[in-house]
Amino acid sequence: xxxxxxxxxxxxxxxxxxxxxxxxxxxxxxxxxxxxxxxxxxxxxxxxxxxxxxxxxxxxxxxxxxxxxxxxxxxxxxxxxxxxxxxxxxxxxxxxxxxxxxxxxxxxxxxxxxxxxxxxxxxxxxxxxxxxxxxxxxxxxxxxxxxxxxxxxxxxxxxxxxxxxxxxxxxxxxxxxxxxxx
Length: 182
Known about the structure:
By secondary structure, the chain is mainly alpha-helical. Helices cover 66% and strands 0% of the residues. It has one domain (29-181).
């Protein structure tokens, strides 16, 4: 019995393969030039995401402003008034709104890009385009939402500054573009 197993092993090791499958590219080779050639497709996907998000809602794009406002209001009531957590002299609403806007951007980018390949599998089988186009379009569409909410936050910040509250920008505020890139 050992001789038969030995013969079988020798036959498998001496086989000559006519096709060896190896990757042609390194994993960090992103083919950004191909993505640049499909920039019009990225803009179409961004428009599709932007329009479909609020198409069937009554308030439409006002949800960009209402959502962080209501969330910050709930956080102010629960954490500021009931739990009495300190905000180091900052207005509570402004403190919670700044955190909510940044967190919403991060969480929506993470959750939407994590399911992009399964939710758009029907597109990948029909036509070729760089697969990186889909996550990039999602991040750009969330970045537009973030820009609108951040502009609302800056208006709210100016309101508190003009009212005489002790609010100011630190050097960390200038690191915001770096945080968004990462």
